[in-house]
């Protein structure tokens, strides 16, 4: 271990591992665990997408492709941005990578180094601060609360900026809170950044999973920020393609070229077969996206009402993604079945060990008073989970 680099030692170990390892072990032992810890849709990859992958294999499309992705897929991505987000890009402004994760990692590696600060609003998706550290930068965490629906305000953003600020991360809809910034909120935040040579990394992975008639609004829509906004997205969540590993990044050509260079010397092109499947997903029949969105919305409505009726739980209404992130301060410090709930990790462990419900403690997301529950599960499983949680805190 003494041979390890400062780079890897400065990274935090995944705090979610303890719970997910335990849940896996319990399931293997045949215990009836209801798992609300998944970060992926419970739906299958659509048939026509699978078929495109099969066709790719059968036609021998199984070799290296252009490092930054095939032109056919870049065209499909450009069409998606135009159709869903009102954004215009050229092919040389797009790179396809091995999942949304790699697009983000490439960007941090290309843009930050020792001394650079990256503003990350909390609660955050677990990988943002660790990716920044891996690249040598310093994450600057800005905490938000349930009162602002877990959204950063323009004043908070202004106060977090220093001469060292290089990037601001925005993730709307958010994993883990489900918060979505509306157009006015995005405009107000961008106004703070205008003319300041600060990049916005906009992670729009859940842009098509939004509720209550909200339309996603990308900061890249704002002309004054055109050269400063980098958009990351992928097919993982919208098309239930988490295992195919296709993400994409859109931004200034010079940055895309830099990501291309990093990728060419580390992983090379993303999987050829998956690229063909992603084309089918992005420009094929989109009805399934809406059908699934409606199903997620029903589950969201159920979970919001059900969790808020549990004493000690307080939940903001998620407006996107498929997570709900109750504040559980009300049960912290209390004792249930002889177990003291000191923090959210204790709560998650208690729920799993004694009541067989797997959740993710909020610590991992920079919010120690919260619990993340995924509603990428059937209504029947959600009802069972809620009943167990209610019993656990009687
Ligand atoms: N960004 C956010 C906010 C996510 O929640 C995830 C997946 O959990 C990703 C990016 C990464 O997605 P992918 O599986 O395409 O790497």
UniProtKB/TrEMBL annotation:
Enzyme Commission identifier(s): 2.6.1.-
Pfam families listed in its UniProt record: Aminotran_1_2
InterPro entries noted in UniProt: Aminotransferase_I/II_large (IPR004839), AspAT/PAT-like (IPR050596), NHTrfase_class1_PyrdxlP-BS (IPR004838), PyrdxlP-dep_Trfase (IPR015424), PyrdxlP-dep_Trfase_major (IPR015421), PyrdxlP-dep_Trfase_small (IPR015422)
Gene3D superfamilies in the cross-refs: Aspartate Aminotransferase, domain 1, Type I PLP-dependent aspartate aminotransferase-like (Major domain)
Gene Ontology molecular function terms on file: pyridoxal phosphate binding; transaminase activity
Cofactors that this protein relies on: pyridoxal 5'-phosphate
Record keywords, A-Z: Aminotransferase, Pyridoxal phosphate, Transferase
Domain Aminotransferase class I/classII large: 31-389
The protein's enzyme class: transferase
Domain of life where this protein originates: Bacteria
Entry's Gene Ontology BP terms: amino acid metabolic process
Similarity section: Belongs to the class-I pyridoxal-phosphate-dependent aminotransferase family.
Listed name of the protein: Aminotransferase
Source organism per UniProt: Chlorobium ferrooxidans DSM 13031
